[in-house]
Amino acid sequence: MNLARIAALAHKEWREIVRDRLFLALAFVVPAALMLVFGYGLSLDVEHIPFAVVDHDRSALSRDYTHRFIDSRYFDYRGHVKSERELDPLLADSRIRFAIVVPPKFEENLMAGRPAAVQSLIDGTFPFRASTSKAYVIAINAAFNGELLAAYISRRFGVAPERAAALAQPVRVQLRYLYNQELKSTWSIATALVMLVLMVAPPFLTALGVVREKESGSIYNIYASTVTRGEFLAGKLLPYVGISIVNSLILWALATGLFGVPFKGDPLFFFLSSVIYVTCTTGIGLLASLIVRTQVAAMMLTVVMTIIPSVLYSGLLVPIASMDPQGQFEAHLFPAMYFTDIALGSFLKGVGLEQLWGKALALAIYAAVLWLISFALFHKRPRT
Amino acid sequence: MNSRLTLWWSRLAAMTVKELLQLFRDGFLMFAIVFLFTADIYMTRNVRLELNHATVVVHDADHSAASRELIYRFRPPYFQLGGEIQDSREGQALLDQGQALAVLDIPPYFQRDLQSGRPTDVQVLVDTSNTVLGTLAASYSGQIIGRYGFEAALARMGASEASLDTVPMIQDQHRVWYNPNQNDAWFIPISELLTVITVMAIMLPAAAAVREKERGTIEQLLVSPLTPALILLPKVISMTLVILAGTAISLFLVLVPVFGVPIKGSLPLFFAVTTLYTVATSGLGLYIATLSRNLAQAAMLAIFILMPMVFLSGAWTPPEAMPAGLRETMYLSPLYYFIEMGYGILLKGAGLDVLWDSLLGLTLLGVGIFGIGVRRFRRQFG
């Protein structure tokens, strides 16, 4: 490895990037813009679920019951309808995602000490939201049941209402949320976005680097020169790694400054991990560029290797812990997951090298393996 | 007149064949396209959006029959027990390292308090650094403990589960529509397919057009007797054909046999809508092609447009989950209408009587986007 030659190649690549004004601008604008759009737009809070009510009872108690849904901030009331049949088109057209059906004699049964069955219809198209909606319904029903039971106990055993309430709810749950006390999904999302954007933008920057030279034929200058394989690849990669490191700092600044995510961990550790991570992701682009012969193919291959795994296997939308073993294995094949843990740990949990060294090491190994594969695939004497 | 029309058609056909040949001869490109439509969608079978075997560790200060009974309710599929810890510091460390998602803390004298009717507090510490998992874990553990308390209260009054008929309470009957088992196995592959279609519909025409500019073959096209429409339409037609073929492969080889997705609605309607969507979106690709001089620029511009379109369209979050200002911008994304109709036709069995407004929206938007793309294209390539 001759450092002067690497520097010369990196300089040449850098000049090419700088002279393509639009590309240079996009290299910095795209990551920041993606961060802004998703940071503001992507919400995983399950709120404002549009719903309708069918009340066959129309009693004081049924009104009291349905108002618990109408007044809840999790549900958006869209009106009463007369029968279940009228719900079908509303659900099919996604005007409502949830409906509650109160049976006839609801009040009469409950007052007489008999149970009453209430039906809730939930649109299952978005399973995560459906299960969360169901959890809200269960919570509202549980609270209502607790009050019914307390009233019943106080009537039947003749004890004071406060005592009856304690009897009806002997175990109280104290939930404490760690790391993100207010359950701000922005915090989780902005942190994960640092990972996502650095997974998508750097490979696309790099992906056309080598194949462009192959297509235009300027690669023959390299073939004919004294530059070795390793020097060529290192020189190619360096400018893109540099751009991506700057981008990682910009993203960090946006996350903490604009979205107010606390940074509790070790800045140096996080910075070094980011450097290793962008080396991995630019390396993916480089690999795609080496395998193929045309630029279009390099683009599509990069899509295959980055966008899809970063969405599915990074923990942004889909928690890794809840995959089955095979899915978890596949997730471990992509670097995104390790960096998600490092980012969440550094931003929200305030842990550093001591807890996260394993993930950083995994990223470093990943980068090294990518480098070796690229080295093995690139030849100065191509067969065709 | 008639012969000119035949000439026009034969030129269109020849150019379309040329585009298709160029595509098919690029082995890696074909591999990537086939991979995206099949293996990539197949890989989503492991992905679940539900809490699944989340590890709970327990600090049990009571060690009684009652506390054990409560602990054993934290069972799969939602939870799994990760063992017992001696003090809360150990729990904190496990949460820090991500080894456990929640810590259940049962106070001393839990059983005694329960039997004497004194209220007792059970503490649950939840890692909410990932809010999706954290909220689910919190709400499920709340449900489990609440249910346990409720049963304990009934038991004290001498009522058992069997004699619940004598207690006034609401019995929940949930019915989940369209996806009765809340099967992620339907939801995720479909949204993945719609995403893949979008990626292709923007990137392939953009690449096909920029390539001509970058390699200089555009000069050949310009001196040929071809009109701009004859340069542009074959690119759109050939890419649409490829995407439709990919969609069919994906639907019949992956979605139906592997995931068991029910096709409740009309298939011709689904493919008609897909065609409309692909043509509309390829307008965006052509627009990108006119902005960029080389593929590197086109690639960056493409993800710049693609990523927000995919994430903010409802493929991952429904419209009502968007913040107020952005919800309106969703109506500008063609993917939003496509998703409404895609899910509607495949899962809900909806027809044109319900979906006509989405179809109208997509058509209007499509005409707009495609019109702008074509206008710019004609000015540059005319």
From TrEMBL, chain A:
Q: Where are the transmembrane segments?
A: 21-42, 186-205, 237-261, 268-292, 298-321, 357-378
Where does it live in the cell?
Cell membrane
Keywords attached to this Swiss-Prot or TrEMBL record, sorted alphabetically, are: Cell membrane, Membrane, Transmembrane, Transmembrane helix, Transport
The main place the protein resides is membrane
Say which domain of life the source belongs to.
Answer: Bacteria
Specify the ABC transmembrane type-2 domain's residue ranges: 137-381
Q: Name one Pfam family in it.
A: ABC2_membrane_3
This one is known as ABC transporter permease
Per the UniProt entry, what species is this protein from, by scientific name? Aromatoleum toluolicum
Show the taxonomic lineage.
Bacteria, Pseudomonadati, Pseudomonadota, Betaproteobacteria, Rhodocyclales
TrEMBL record, chain B:
User: InterPro entries per the record?
Assistant: ABC-2_transporter_component, ABC2_TM, ABC2_TM_bact-type
Which residue ranges run through the membrane? 20-43, 185-210, 230-255, 267-289, 295-317, 359-377
The keyword Nucleotide-binding appears for this protein: no
Could you say which residues form the signal peptide? none
What is its membrane topology?
Multi-pass membrane protein
Q: Where is the ABC transmembrane type-2 domain?
A: 154-380
* Keywords, alphabetical: Cell membrane, Membrane, Transmembrane, Transmembrane helix, Transport
Compartments, record wording: Cell membrane
Family in the record: Belongs to the ABC-2 integral membrane protein family.
Name it.
ABC transporter permease
